[in-house]
Design brief:
- This protein has three domains: 1-47, Single Sheet (N-terminal domain of TfIIb), CATH 2.20.25; 48-93, no CATH class; 95-341, Ribonuclease H-like superfamily/Ribonuclease H (Nucleotidyltransferase, domain 5, 2-Layer Sandwich), CATH 3.30.420.
- By secondary structure, it is α+β, with helices and mostly antiparallel strands.
- The strands form three sheets. A five-stranded mixed β-sheet has the order 9-8-7-10-11, with helices on both faces. The chain has a three-stranded antiparallel β-sheet with strand order 1-2-3, with no helix packed on it. A three-stranded antiparallel β-sheet has the order 4-5-6.
- It is 31% helix and 19% strand.
- Helix 4 crosses helix 8 and helix 5 packs parallel to helix 6 (247-254).
- The protein has ten helices and eleven strands.
- A hairpin with a 5-residue loop joins strand 2 and strand 3 (39-40).
Length: 341
């Protein structure tokens, strides 16, 4: 009667016909299968699986981990003739941007006032740079409509998710594969505390691709901003100032050339996004600061929507940035997205 073992030959699946064949270099008992003569050590632990590192983008050969950081990894080509060094982000460690954390209404249902009046008040605030009290005064003088400035304030804050959903539906049809994307940050105050708002703008369409509001001004915030817009297109270069927080995010997330502007006299400057920051600050002055992070995030999101889809720009031949990027609505879409049309 054959002796049954608690293991099987990994080659022929035999489970009863073996020779004891000494020990391996780690001291584990080896066996030889009598059927296929295969040698193995069943008690020896299996080696760890080979890491699935990305292949070299230059020669398509295998790579190895050269340096590992919190938000990205530095790999190097294993071919001694190539030795190309490249970066790969860690999506699991990159936090989502603030523009993805909007809280409010997603439709106009159960509203006491007509939608046309709500949109009129929103347009006056986000394009006219007028305070809530002045909007209430103008509506009373022009249309004999009595509204509280608090009601208008709630409209301007609470409908941010609704307009964000409209933008998410329309953006996939737009083209942002331009020469440069410009990135910069500016200061705002929330309840008297300094915060930083990070913007990234397409150079050809003047479209604000994304923003991120944060109390910090460091590299993880730049990772959050660039990681949220990387799927929108592939620019030839990212233009920023000399701030070092952009260096590694541009290399690992976007992978484009990074142009760090030294002065305004350079051939390529960051004037485009500086001009946008000037318009943002002109609107921001009507608020004289924000009361909370939630309201600030919602208000900035609405400002960006009106800037991209509603407000025509004289520098773009009186077109909106979305139109320059290729927005072409059908008749049915114009009825659905009436504010954009």
């Amino acid at each position: 009667m054959h002796k049954l073992y608690q293991f099987r030959c990994p080659k022929c699946n035999n489970n009863h016909n073996f020779y004891r064949y000494g020990k391996d270099n780690l001291g584990f008992q080896k066996y030889q299968c009598r059927n296929c003569l295969h040698q193995f050590a069943p008690a020896r632990p299996k080696p760890k699986s080979v890491q699935n590192y990305p292949r070299c983008p230059k020669c398509s050969k295998g790579s190895f981990l050269h340096h590992d950081y919190d938000h990205y990894s530095n790999f190097r080509c294993g071919d001694k003739k190539c030795r190309h060094s490249f970066f790969a982000p860690k999506p699991s460690t990159i936090l989502p941007p603030s523009m993805s954390k909007l809280i409010g209404k997603t439709d106009f249902k159960r509203m006491r006032h007509p939608v046309s009046l709500i949109i009129t008040a929103l347009t006056m605030f986000y394009i006219g740079h007028v305070s809530f009290r002045k909007i209430a005064l103008m509506l009373r003088l022009l249309y004999n409509i009595k509204l509280s400035h608090t009601t208008i304030s709630n409209w301007c804050k609470n409908f941010a998710p609704l307009f964000q959903n409209i933008a998410l539906e329309l953006i996939p049809s737009l083209d942002f594969n331009s020469d440069e994307w410009h990135a910069d940050e500016t200061v705002v105050k929330i309840a008297g505390v300094k915060h930083y708002i990070w913007f990234i703008v397409d150079s050809e369409t003047r479209f604000v691709l994304g923003f991120h509001l944060s109390p910090y001004r460091n590299s993880p915030q730049a990772f959050s901003l660039l990681n949220s817009v990387k799927h929108l297109g592939k620019p030839n270069a990212i233009v920023s100032d000399r701030y070092s927080a952009y260096r590694q995010p541009v290399k690992s997330v976007i992978g484009s050339t990074h142009i760090r502007v030294v002065s305004f006299k350079d051939d390529i400057s960051n004037n485009l996004i500086e001009a946008f920051n000037k318009q943002f600050k002109a609107w921001y002055k009507t608020k004289q600061g924000f009361n909370s992070f939630k309201s600030a995030n919602n208000l900035i999101s609405m400002f960006v929507f009106f800037y991209n889809f509603v407000r025509p720009h004289s520098s773009l031949n009186d077109l909106t940035p979305a139109m320059v990027a290729g927005l072409n609505l059908t008749k049915r879409q114009k009825r659905k997205y009436y504010i954009v049309a």
